[in-house]
Amino acid sequence: xxxxxxxxxxxxxxxxxxxxxxxxxxxxxxxxxxxxxxxxxxxxxxxxxxxxxxxxxxxxxxxxxxxxxxxxxxxxx
Length: 77
Description:
Order of helices and strands: HHH
Number of domains: 1
Oligomer: single chain
């Protein structure tokens, strides 16, 4: 059933609107950057899966450390 007020036309109710992993990754990368609008944060809080957020955070942190190590190796050599 569609909720006409919110514009959600996906079947299955509010749980069907959960964000995918790419949307979660984008939100985590924005949080690493440190700039977010309050409306974006509130929308993410409603849609994102907490398990996806944890996994995306670990992946983003690992990539950040690897990039730093690569930069240090290039500078030192």
